C-alpha cells in the first residue's frame, strides 16, 4: 500500500496515536490560560470529552467508526449548538490542536493536511458571529 492509499488514521499509526493526539489536545486545553474560554465550555472532568473526541477522530481520520457505532451520526453542528462557538472559540480550539499535531507529526505535508482539515471542521462549528 502506498502513502496515497493510506488513510490519515493509518498514516498516523492507528489507535494509540489517535488516543495520544486526543489526550495531548485536552492536556493543552486544560493548562493553557490563553484558551480559558474554550476550557470553560467543558465539564470539570474531561474524561467523557476525551473519550468522545477520540471516538470521533478515529472515524473522521478513516479508522474505526467508534462514535457512529456508539452514538449515531456525529451531527457536529447540532451537538455544538448549546455552546457559543465563535471565531475566538474556533481559534482557541485550533491553538490546542495545532500544538498537539505539531508535537506529534514531523512530516510537514501531513501536518499541513491535518491542520487544514481540522480548521475547516472547526470553522464549520461556528454558530455565533465574531
From TrEMBL:
It comes from the Bacteria. SUPFAM superfamilies: Globin-like. Gene3D superfamilies: Globins. It holds the Pfam family Bac_globin. InterPro entries: GlbO/GLB3-like (IPR044203), Globin-like_sf (IPR009050), Globin/Proto (IPR012292), Hemoglobin_trunc (IPR001486). One of its GO terms (molecular function) is heme binding. Keywords: Heme, Iron, Metal-binding, Transport. Belongs to the truncated hemoglobin family. Group II subfamily. This is Globin. The lineage of its organism: Bacteria, Pseudomonadati, Pseudomonadota, Betaproteobacteria, Neisseriales.
